[in-house]
Amino acid sequence: MGSHSDGTPHQSGTVATTGTTEMERFPDPGLPPHRPRLTDIDEKAAKRAERQVVLLFLISVLGSVLFFVGYFGIQIDGAPKYDVTDPSGSRALQVQNLLLGLGIALGMFGIGIGVVHWARTLMPDHELVESRHAVRTEEQRADAQEILTTIYDESGIKRRPLLRNTLIGAAVVAPLPFIGLLKDLGPTDLDVLKHTLWDEGVRLVRDPSGTPIKASDVTLGSTFHVVPENLAQIGHNEGYLDEKAKAVVLLMRLDPDSVNVSPERQDWNVDGIFAYSKVCTHVGCPVALYEQQTHHLLCPCHQSTFDLTNECEVIFGPAARPLPQLPITVDAEGYLVARSDFTEPVGPTYSQRGTHVEEMQGEAN
Fold it and tell me: What element of type H or E holds 138?
Protein backbone atom coordinates (compact mmCIF):
# COMPACT_ATOMS: atom_id res chain seq x y z
CA MET A 1 0.00 0.00 0.00
CA GLY A 2 2.88 2.38 0.80
CA SER A 3 2.04 6.06 0.64
CA HIS A 4 -1.44 5.35 -0.67
CA SER A 5 -2.66 3.88 2.64
CA ASP A 6 -4.32 7.14 3.78
CA GLY A 7 -6.93 6.79 1.04
CA THR A 8 -7.07 10.51 0.16
CA PRO A 9 -7.81 11.34 -3.50
CA HIS A 10 -4.46 13.04 -4.03
CA GLN A 11 -2.51 10.18 -2.48
CA SER A 12 -4.47 7.15 -3.66
CA GLY A 13 -3.85 7.69 -7.35
CA THR A 14 -7.59 7.77 -8.18
CA VAL A 15 -7.38 11.37 -9.40
CA ALA A 16 -5.08 12.40 -12.20
CA THR A 17 -3.14 15.59 -11.52
CA THR A 18 -1.22 17.88 -13.84
CA GLY A 19 2.46 18.42 -13.61
CA THR A 20 4.09 21.55 -12.36
CA THR A 21 5.35 22.52 -15.80
CA GLU A 22 3.38 25.09 -17.77
CA MET A 23 0.99 23.54 -20.28
CA GLU A 24 1.98 24.06 -23.87
CA ARG A 25 -0.34 26.30 -25.91
CA PHE A 26 -2.27 24.74 -28.76
CA PRO A 27 -1.06 25.88 -32.14
CA ASP A 28 -3.35 28.15 -34.16
CA PRO A 29 -5.17 25.82 -36.58
CA GLY A 30 -5.84 28.69 -38.97
CA LEU A 31 -8.87 29.03 -41.21
CA PRO A 32 -10.43 25.95 -42.79
CA PRO A 33 -10.00 25.58 -46.54
CA HIS A 34 -12.56 27.60 -48.49
CA ARG A 35 -15.30 25.54 -50.08
CA PRO A 36 -16.70 27.30 -53.13
CA ARG A 37 -20.46 27.46 -53.53
CA LEU A 38 -22.29 26.35 -56.63
CA THR A 39 -22.93 29.98 -57.55
CA ASP A 40 -19.17 30.65 -57.38
CA ILE A 41 -18.33 28.11 -60.08
CA ASP A 42 -21.52 27.94 -62.14
CA GLU A 43 -22.67 31.14 -63.85
CA LYS A 44 -26.10 29.63 -64.55
CA ALA A 45 -26.56 28.95 -60.85
CA ALA A 46 -25.55 32.54 -60.07
CA LYS A 47 -28.08 33.88 -62.58
CA ARG A 48 -30.75 31.65 -61.08
CA ALA A 49 -29.97 32.91 -57.58
CA GLU A 50 -30.10 36.48 -58.86
CA ARG A 51 -33.55 35.89 -60.33
CA GLN A 52 -34.71 34.38 -57.04
CA VAL A 53 -33.55 37.44 -55.10
CA VAL A 54 -35.23 39.76 -57.59
CA LEU A 55 -38.45 37.73 -57.24
CA LEU A 56 -38.32 38.06 -53.45
CA PHE A 57 -37.86 41.83 -53.72
CA LEU A 58 -40.80 42.01 -56.13
CA ILE A 59 -42.90 39.99 -53.66
CA SER A 60 -42.04 42.62 -51.06
CA VAL A 61 -43.23 45.39 -53.37
CA LEU A 62 -46.39 43.40 -54.17
CA GLY A 63 -47.10 42.96 -50.46
CA SER A 64 -46.85 46.70 -49.88
CA VAL A 65 -49.21 47.33 -52.79
CA LEU A 66 -51.60 44.71 -51.39
CA PHE A 67 -51.62 46.58 -48.08
CA PHE A 68 -52.66 49.82 -49.75
CA VAL A 69 -55.36 48.04 -51.77
CA GLY A 70 -56.90 46.80 -48.52
CA TYR A 71 -56.34 50.07 -46.67
CA PHE A 72 -57.71 52.49 -49.26
CA GLY A 73 -59.70 50.26 -51.62
CA ILE A 74 -62.17 48.70 -49.17
CA GLN A 75 -64.89 50.76 -47.56
CA ILE A 76 -65.58 49.81 -43.96
CA ASP A 77 -68.31 52.27 -42.90
CA GLY A 78 -71.10 51.08 -45.14
CA ALA A 79 -71.44 48.46 -47.83
CA PRO A 80 -68.13 47.51 -49.46
CA LYS A 81 -67.68 48.72 -52.97
CA TYR A 82 -67.56 45.20 -54.34
CA ASP A 83 -70.53 43.69 -52.42
CA VAL A 84 -73.76 45.58 -51.87
CA THR A 85 -75.27 42.59 -50.03
CA ASP A 86 -73.19 43.32 -46.93
CA PRO A 87 -74.64 46.57 -45.52
CA SER A 88 -73.05 46.08 -42.10
CA GLY A 89 -69.56 45.95 -43.60
CA SER A 90 -68.53 42.91 -41.51
CA ARG A 91 -67.28 40.94 -44.51
CA ALA A 92 -65.49 44.01 -45.77
CA LEU A 93 -63.73 44.36 -42.43
CA GLN A 94 -62.65 40.71 -42.53
CA VAL A 95 -61.29 41.07 -46.07
CA GLN A 96 -59.52 44.29 -45.19
CA ASN A 97 -57.83 42.75 -42.15
CA LEU A 98 -56.74 39.82 -44.30
CA LEU A 99 -55.24 42.09 -46.95
CA LEU A 100 -53.53 44.30 -44.37
CA GLY A 101 -51.98 41.32 -42.61
CA LEU A 102 -50.86 39.60 -45.80
CA GLY A 103 -49.55 42.85 -47.21
CA ILE A 104 -47.33 43.62 -44.23
CA ALA A 105 -46.19 39.99 -43.95
CA LEU A 106 -45.22 39.72 -47.62
CA GLY A 107 -43.59 43.16 -47.57
CA MET A 108 -41.31 42.29 -44.65
CA PHE A 109 -40.80 38.65 -45.69
CA GLY A 110 -39.78 39.47 -49.25
CA ILE A 111 -37.16 42.09 -48.44
CA GLY A 112 -35.80 40.17 -45.45
CA ILE A 113 -35.43 36.78 -47.09
CA GLY A 114 -34.23 38.43 -50.31
CA VAL A 115 -31.32 40.16 -48.57
CA VAL A 116 -30.37 36.96 -46.72
CA HIS A 117 -30.52 34.89 -49.91
CA TRP A 118 -28.42 37.47 -51.73
CA ALA A 119 -25.75 37.38 -49.03
CA ARG A 120 -25.65 33.57 -48.86
CA THR A 121 -25.51 32.88 -52.58
CA LEU A 122 -23.99 35.85 -54.39
CA MET A 123 -21.88 37.92 -52.02
CA PRO A 124 -18.28 36.70 -51.39
CA ASP A 125 -18.04 34.35 -48.42
CA HIS A 126 -14.28 34.17 -47.91
CA GLU A 127 -13.31 34.07 -44.23
CA LEU A 128 -10.59 36.41 -43.06
CA VAL A 129 -9.01 37.60 -39.85
CA GLU A 130 -8.17 41.24 -39.24
CA SER A 131 -6.69 42.88 -36.18
CA ARG A 132 -8.81 45.54 -34.60
CA HIS A 133 -7.28 48.98 -34.34
CA ALA A 134 -8.50 52.51 -33.90
CA VAL A 135 -8.87 54.58 -37.07
CA ARG A 136 -6.92 57.73 -36.37
CA THR A 137 -4.54 58.79 -39.10
CA GLU A 138 -5.49 59.92 -42.59
CA GLU A 139 -3.75 56.86 -43.98
CA GLN A 140 -5.88 54.61 -41.78
CA ARG A 141 -9.04 56.47 -42.79
CA ALA A 142 -8.07 55.93 -46.43
CA ASP A 143 -7.62 52.23 -45.68
CA ALA A 144 -11.05 52.10 -44.07
CA GLN A 145 -12.60 53.81 -47.08
CA GLU A 146 -10.88 51.34 -49.36
CA ILE A 147 -12.33 48.47 -47.31
CA LEU A 148 -15.83 49.90 -47.66
CA THR A 149 -15.32 50.35 -51.38
CA THR A 150 -14.19 46.74 -51.64
CA ILE A 151 -17.29 45.59 -49.78
CA TYR A 152 -19.46 47.61 -52.15
CA ASP A 153 -17.75 46.08 -55.16
CA GLU A 154 -17.92 42.53 -53.81
CA SER A 155 -21.64 42.85 -53.05
CA GLY A 156 -22.25 42.79 -56.78
CA ILE A 157 -24.43 45.89 -56.83
CA LYS A 158 -22.48 47.39 -59.71
CA ARG A 159 -22.54 44.20 -61.76
CA ARG A 160 -26.17 43.37 -61.00
CA PRO A 161 -28.27 46.54 -61.53
CA LEU A 162 -31.55 44.60 -61.49
CA LEU A 163 -30.81 43.46 -57.94
CA ARG A 164 -29.90 46.99 -56.92
CA ASN A 165 -33.02 48.55 -58.43
CA THR A 166 -35.45 46.01 -57.00
CA LEU A 167 -33.81 46.31 -53.58
CA ILE A 168 -34.16 50.10 -53.67
CA GLY A 169 -37.79 49.75 -54.75
CA ALA A 170 -38.62 47.27 -52.00
CA ALA A 171 -36.79 49.34 -49.36
CA VAL A 172 -38.69 52.49 -50.37
CA VAL A 173 -42.13 50.88 -50.51
CA ALA A 174 -41.88 48.54 -47.49
CA PRO A 175 -42.06 51.26 -44.76
CA LEU A 176 -45.07 52.98 -46.35
CA PRO A 177 -47.68 50.61 -44.81
CA PHE A 178 -46.41 51.47 -41.33
CA ILE A 179 -46.60 55.18 -42.15
CA GLY A 180 -50.18 54.61 -43.29
CA LEU A 181 -51.04 52.84 -40.04
CA LEU A 182 -49.99 55.93 -38.07
CA LYS A 183 -53.12 57.60 -39.42
CA ASP A 184 -55.29 55.20 -37.42
CA LEU A 185 -53.64 55.91 -34.07
CA GLY A 186 -56.13 58.67 -33.49
CA PRO A 187 -58.38 61.20 -35.22
CA THR A 188 -56.78 64.14 -36.96
CA ASP A 189 -59.47 66.45 -35.53
CA LEU A 190 -59.14 66.05 -31.76
CA ASP A 191 -62.34 68.03 -31.12
CA VAL A 192 -64.38 64.94 -32.08
CA LEU A 193 -63.32 63.31 -28.79
CA LYS A 194 -64.91 66.07 -26.72
CA HIS A 195 -68.49 64.97 -27.47
CA THR A 196 -70.16 61.55 -27.73
CA LEU A 197 -73.71 60.30 -28.28
CA TRP A 198 -74.37 60.33 -24.55
CA ASP A 199 -76.84 62.97 -23.48
CA GLU A 200 -79.42 63.56 -20.78
CA GLY A 201 -82.00 60.76 -20.75
CA VAL A 202 -80.17 58.42 -23.17
CA ARG A 203 -80.59 54.85 -21.99
CA LEU A 204 -77.68 52.52 -21.33
CA VAL A 205 -78.06 49.35 -23.43
CA ARG A 206 -76.01 46.18 -23.60
CA ASP A 207 -73.49 45.75 -26.37
CA PRO A 208 -74.18 44.19 -28.84
CA SER A 209 -77.79 43.14 -28.10
CA GLY A 210 -79.09 46.67 -27.48
CA THR A 211 -81.13 45.57 -24.45
CA PRO A 212 -81.87 48.38 -21.97
CA ILE A 213 -80.50 47.85 -18.47
CA LYS A 214 -82.45 48.30 -15.26
CA ALA A 215 -80.65 49.13 -12.03
CA SER A 216 -82.01 45.91 -10.57
CA ASP A 217 -80.23 43.93 -13.33
CA VAL A 218 -76.81 45.05 -12.13
CA THR A 219 -75.81 42.83 -9.22
CA LEU A 220 -72.88 43.40 -6.89
CA GLY A 221 -69.63 42.58 -8.71
CA SER A 222 -71.22 42.29 -12.16
CA THR A 223 -69.90 44.04 -15.29
CA PHE A 224 -71.69 45.18 -18.46
CA HIS A 225 -70.31 46.46 -21.76
CA VAL A 226 -72.60 49.37 -22.59
CA VAL A 227 -73.37 51.69 -25.51
CA PRO A 228 -75.92 54.51 -25.84
CA GLU A 229 -79.37 53.47 -27.10
CA ASN A 230 -79.36 56.14 -29.81
CA LEU A 231 -76.33 54.50 -31.43
CA ALA A 232 -78.75 52.19 -33.25
CA GLN A 233 -80.10 55.20 -35.15
CA ILE A 234 -76.77 55.76 -36.90
CA GLY A 235 -76.07 53.81 -40.08
CA HIS A 236 -72.79 52.07 -40.74
CA ASN A 237 -72.13 54.51 -43.56
CA GLU A 238 -72.74 57.47 -41.24
CA GLY A 239 -69.87 56.90 -38.83
CA TYR A 240 -71.37 54.13 -36.68
CA LEU A 241 -68.02 52.59 -35.75
CA ASP A 242 -66.45 55.96 -34.90
CA GLU A 243 -69.34 56.94 -32.63
CA LYS A 244 -69.35 53.56 -30.93
CA ALA A 245 -65.59 53.71 -30.35
CA LYS A 246 -66.00 56.98 -28.45
CA ALA A 247 -69.12 56.08 -26.47
CA VAL A 248 -68.39 52.54 -25.19
CA VAL A 249 -68.72 52.27 -21.42
CA LEU A 250 -68.04 49.73 -18.68
CA LEU A 251 -70.83 49.46 -16.11
CA MET A 252 -70.13 47.90 -12.69
CA ARG A 253 -71.73 47.72 -9.27
CA LEU A 254 -69.63 48.03 -6.13
CA ASP A 255 -70.36 48.23 -2.44
CA PRO A 256 -71.00 51.97 -1.89
CA ASP A 257 -69.14 51.82 1.43
CA SER A 258 -65.92 50.72 -0.36
CA VAL A 259 -65.88 53.58 -2.85
CA ASN A 260 -64.45 57.06 -2.38
CA VAL A 261 -66.65 59.58 -4.16
CA SER A 262 -65.79 63.27 -4.46
CA PRO A 263 -68.50 65.75 -3.45
CA GLU A 264 -69.18 66.96 -6.99
CA ARG A 265 -69.81 63.37 -8.14
CA GLN A 266 -72.16 62.23 -5.38
CA ASP A 267 -75.10 61.93 -7.79
CA TRP A 268 -73.16 60.39 -10.68
CA ASN A 269 -73.80 56.80 -9.56
CA VAL A 270 -76.90 54.78 -8.69
CA ASP A 271 -76.55 52.82 -5.42
CA GLY A 272 -72.95 51.85 -6.25
CA ILE A 273 -73.50 51.43 -10.01
CA PHE A 274 -70.72 53.29 -11.83
CA ALA A 275 -70.15 53.89 -15.53
CA TYR A 276 -66.68 54.67 -16.91
CA SER A 277 -65.34 55.15 -20.40
CA LYS A 278 -63.89 51.99 -21.87
CA VAL A 279 -61.29 53.93 -23.87
CA CYS A 280 -57.88 53.95 -22.19
CA THR A 281 -56.40 57.39 -21.59
CA HIS A 282 -52.99 56.23 -22.78
CA VAL A 283 -53.40 55.51 -26.51
CA GLY A 284 -57.07 54.56 -26.73
CA CYS A 285 -57.05 50.77 -26.34
CA PRO A 286 -60.25 49.19 -24.97
CA VAL A 287 -60.12 48.66 -21.21
CA ALA A 288 -61.95 45.39 -20.76
CA LEU A 289 -60.32 43.47 -17.88
CA TYR A 290 -61.99 43.81 -14.49
CA GLU A 291 -60.50 42.32 -11.32
CA GLN A 292 -63.50 41.85 -9.09
CA GLN A 293 -61.54 41.25 -5.88
CA THR A 294 -59.28 44.29 -6.17
CA HIS A 295 -61.76 46.48 -8.12
CA HIS A 296 -59.10 47.26 -10.69
CA LEU A 297 -59.62 47.87 -14.40
CA LEU A 298 -56.73 46.85 -16.65
CA CYS A 299 -55.83 47.86 -20.18
CA PRO A 300 -54.42 44.81 -22.02
CA CYS A 301 -52.27 46.87 -24.40
CA HIS A 302 -49.80 48.51 -22.02
CA GLN A 303 -51.01 47.34 -18.58
CA SER A 304 -52.38 50.65 -17.38
CA THR A 305 -54.37 49.94 -14.21
CA PHE A 306 -57.24 52.03 -12.84
CA ASP A 307 -58.71 51.89 -9.33
CA LEU A 308 -62.52 51.82 -9.37
CA THR A 309 -62.75 52.63 -5.67
CA ASN A 310 -61.01 55.98 -6.27
CA GLU A 311 -62.79 57.26 -9.39
CA CYS A 312 -60.58 55.19 -11.71
CA GLU A 313 -57.35 56.93 -10.84
CA VAL A 314 -54.21 55.49 -12.43
CA ILE A 315 -52.28 53.24 -10.05
CA PHE A 316 -49.96 51.59 -12.59
CA GLY A 317 -48.84 51.93 -16.19
CA PRO A 318 -48.30 54.74 -18.69
CA ALA A 319 -51.80 56.26 -18.64
CA ALA A 320 -51.64 59.88 -17.49
CA ARG A 321 -55.17 60.49 -16.20
CA PRO A 322 -58.20 58.58 -14.85
CA LEU A 323 -60.89 57.12 -17.05
CA PRO A 324 -63.70 59.65 -17.64
CA GLN A 325 -66.85 58.86 -15.65
CA LEU A 326 -70.31 58.96 -17.24
CA PRO A 327 -72.89 60.51 -14.89
CA ILE A 328 -75.92 58.17 -14.69
CA THR A 329 -79.32 57.98 -13.00
CA VAL A 330 -82.59 56.02 -13.45
CA ASP A 331 -85.70 57.00 -15.37
CA ALA A 332 -89.33 56.55 -14.32
CA GLU A 333 -89.31 52.94 -15.51
CA GLY A 334 -86.20 52.03 -13.56
CA TYR A 335 -83.85 51.93 -16.54
CA LEU A 336 -80.36 53.37 -16.27
CA VAL A 337 -79.93 56.56 -18.27
CA ALA A 338 -77.19 59.14 -18.70
CA ARG A 339 -77.43 62.44 -16.85
CA SER A 340 -75.30 64.12 -19.52
CA ASP A 341 -72.39 63.52 -21.83
CA PHE A 342 -68.91 62.93 -20.39
CA THR A 343 -67.67 66.08 -18.69
CA GLU A 344 -64.20 65.67 -20.25
CA PRO A 345 -62.88 64.32 -23.55
CA VAL A 346 -62.56 60.54 -23.79
CA GLY A 347 -59.55 58.73 -25.15
CA PRO A 348 -55.81 59.43 -25.10
CA THR A 349 -54.51 62.29 -23.00
CA TYR A 350 -52.95 64.01 -26.03
CA SER A 351 -56.49 64.84 -27.17
CA GLN A 352 -56.72 67.35 -24.31
CA ARG A 353 -53.54 69.27 -25.03
CA GLY A 354 -55.39 71.97 -26.92
CA THR A 355 -58.04 72.07 -24.20
CA HIS A 356 -55.45 72.64 -21.50
CA VAL A 357 -53.86 75.43 -23.52
CA GLU A 358 -57.24 77.13 -24.01
CA GLU A 359 -58.05 76.82 -20.29
CA MET A 360 -54.68 78.32 -19.31
CA GLN A 361 -55.15 81.18 -21.74
CA GLY A 362 -58.66 81.78 -20.35
CA GLU A 363 -57.37 81.87 -16.78
CA ALA A 364 -54.60 84.27 -17.81
CA ASN A 365 -57.15 86.63 -19.35
Answer: helix 138-154
